[in-house]
Amino acid sequence: MTSLSLAERLAAMPAEAARLYLDGLSDGAVQALAFHWPFWARPQQLPPSPGDWRTWLIMAGRGFGKTRAGAEWVRSIGETVPNARIALVAANLAEARSVMVEGQSGLLAIAPEDARPTWEPSLRRLRWPGGAQAVLFSAAEPEGLRGPEHSHAWCDEIAKWDNASGRSLAAWDNLQLGLRVGPLPQVCATTTPRAVPLVRQLLGDPALIISRGSSHANRANLPPAFLAAVERHYGGTALGRQELDGELLEDIEGALWSRSLIEACRVRWHAQGLVRMVIGVDPPAGSSGDACGIIVCALQDDGRAAVLADCSVETASPETWARAVAAASDAWGADRIIAEANQGGEMVGAVLRAADIALPVRLVHASRGKVARAEPVAALYETGRVVHCGTFARLEDEMCGLMAGGTYQGPGRSPDRADALVWALTELMLGRRGTPRIRSLES
Fold it and tell me: Contact 171/89 with Cβ under 8 angstroms?
């Protein structure tokens, strides 16, 4: 079966054939095409057929058109089922309104003027001319879904729902218990894949109908610069497989870090309240193999450590990676460089001195393996004492490949970025308790 929409197939036809097709339509039919979703939708964006399903999950990459598919499904119900009572559930009410209702692919934007629902913000309600209604709910407030009854529901970005204290599962369960209006209650869930408890639970349902797809499936409607940029930054990484290819990445059993743990530590960047700034460096043994891990971390005034940047460089000569360390130091105003000296010994210190780094450099000699050094740092994450100010795809891939048993199952030959992270966070949070023999170059 083709993965193209009718519109894309028409555009691919010879010009004369396309003209003959359009000339055969009445003026009204041509105008109606603008809002005729089956003409524009790819097969993966259309509801399952036949319609006797309960749950339809659209799990796909960024930019695939998940929001548009969910909104069009709701629109079709609102326009054709007069007594429909629809729940619109997002991670919070602000996102429900800005994405599901008022967004570029939201319910107000996609509707023809004569069938557009009335939006009542104070009541969090949409009303269609035929009588159907939709009400907004926040998954962060599961009790709000206890009581209301619905015939249909659209749940957006369910992998983003708050997992604390089981809120996401409670919101889903309360919604399901209220889906009891009409002969066949149905729910459409749209999300980028993440291995959170709610997504895992849904995938375990044998009756689930699932549609998958990648960002590239919607290439015709995405800016080429966007696709080029995300491929350049995330292509080949686990994060790229998840966010672009729409692949659900399972955690490796026995790893020190899980993806859900790292996601729970992710925050927005802010420059206030930084007490100390250090750069962890894991130099490569040569210039043609492993990367030089260069990770910028800071201690905040609330006692937590923040991971700020991954400035690592690959297949770099000693002069090149030393310059990269110096550039990171200048850009972030670091207080200290923490560099592992096991690979190269005195050479590491000499290279960093030659880069004219105008701040203290501390060389650390590891007496334990990478995993043993990483274990106390992983414990800091589990207690909420470390945050990630942004997404660091390659670093996080390596972290999730460090195994408790002492092995490494992540990308590349060695977790260079993860090791640099461990040195930086050990300096900030564990002091000399977590650092083996240390030699200072401050003098």
Answer: yes
Distance CA 382, CA 262 (A): 9
Contact 332, 309 (CB under 8 A): yes
Mean pLDDT lowest among 136-150, 152-166, 192-206, 359-373: 359-373
Residue 1 near residue 43 (C-beta atoms within 8 A): yes
Beta bridge partners of residue 60, listed in sequence order: 213
Integer angstrom CA distances of residue 409 from 33, 251, 413: 51, 11, 9
pLDDT tens digits for range 20-37: 766 666 766 666 777 888
Instruction: Give the per-residue pLDDT at 1.
Output: 47
Instruction: Give the model's pLDDT for residue 343.
Output: 59
H runs (alpha helix) in 333-386: 346-354, 370-382
Q: Using an 8 Å Cβ cutoff, are 97 and 121 in contact?
A: yes
pLDDT exceeds cutoff 90 at 323: no
pTM of the model as a whole: 0.63
Radius of gyration of the chain (CA): 26
Q: In Å, how far from its chain's centre is CA 87?
A: 24
Q: Residue 423: which of 356, 337, 319, 349 has the closest Cα?
A: 337
Crossing angle of helices 416-425/370-382, nearest 10°? 60
Neighbours of 263 (CB within 10 A): 17
Exposed (0-12), middle (13-18) or buried (19+): which is 381, by Cβ within 10 Å?
Answer: buried
Q: What's the mean per-residue pLDDT of the chain? A: 86
Q: For residue 206, give the amino acid letter.
A: P
Q: Which residue(s) pair with 284 in the sheet?
A: none
Two structure tokens written together for 437: 């023999």
Whether 285 and 347 have beta carbons less than 8 Å apart is answered as no
- Residues with Cβ within 8 Å of residue 432, at least 6 apart in sequence: 438
| Residue 399: per-residue pLDDT | 93
* C-alpha to C-alpha distance for 278 and 325, rounded to whole angstroms: 11
Calculate what percentage of the chain has a pLDDT beyond 90.
51
For 365, the token pair is 């000699």
* Angstrom distance (rounded) from CA 417 to CA 251: 19
Can you tell me the distance from the alpha carbon of 255 to that of 265, in angstroms, rounded to the nearest whole number?
17
Instruction: List, in sequence order, every residue forming a beta bridge with 189; answer none if it has no partner.
Output: 57, 155
